[in-house]
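Lecture 7 notes: from sequence to structure.

We start with a single chain of 301 residues. Read the sequence below before looking at the structure.
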Amino acid sequence: MKPITLSIAAVERDTGLSKDTLRVWERRYGYPLPERDAVGERAYPLDQVEKLRIVKRLLDGGHRPGRVVTLPVAELQRLSDSLPAAQRAEAAASPDLRAYLVVLREHDVDGLRRMLAQAQMRLGLARFVSEVISPLNTLVGEGWMRGQIEIFEEHAYTESVQVVLRQAIAHVPDAVAIDRPRVLLSTLPGEPHGLGLLMAEAMLAIDGARCLSLGVQTPVWDLVLAAQAHRCDIVALSFTGCMNPNAVTAGLAELRAKLPADVELWAGGLAPVLHRRPVAGVHAVASFNELPGRIARWRAR
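Now the structure, written as tokens:
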């Protein structure tokens, strides 16, 4: 049987490394080494894709491409295991959280959704987001990077969490809602992951904010138009680290310049660049637990 390979577009989606980056590394470092398909297009073996995932993880942790791209997989894995996020993931792996991973790996999607829904009802929405979903996201991400969780399993997990969160948000009592602030949620083009948006919406809804989510990858000018049309007080963006850091800072700077001065711009998520290279006029949100305090301070102002 012919080995499975992925196109350069598929590798870009799966690893978060752009096509240009993959081509530059091929010329500069001699890795990756794609094969060629019947029409001469690059075709990447799965073992190279797995290595590229670990490399991307290390880049997000602050390592430079020239140091890590050519290292063997065993050394890359050792470096990955030493990252602070990996340590937090291991520390967060309580027996209760590991139970979710067991059900996920057994492909019992109904069982996973039932467990998530029960935890949400038992803990309440705010604690469910901060004590279950946040650490579970880290564990699932680490498992995916190490090859312990397949892409289809990660997608099943994400969809299950989205179903449970949407149901929970829909049942937040209308009496809780206050007219202000009005918050517009989305991601910039190039950021395809929307789970963080939904988690933020859940936390904001509990505190009475009026939320409008546009989903993912909304162009900057459309964000400006939507904020004006819906008289939004805050535009909140989510980042997972899959975007090029320069694209993150450039996009935030452009959006900040185009938004009215009285509309706040919040940016949250796992992208290290948000805290290493802050953009003037952009409020970097380090965790979901910060949101209630930020809403309270906005109302006080």
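The first helix runs from residue 8 to 15. Keep this in mind for problem set 3.
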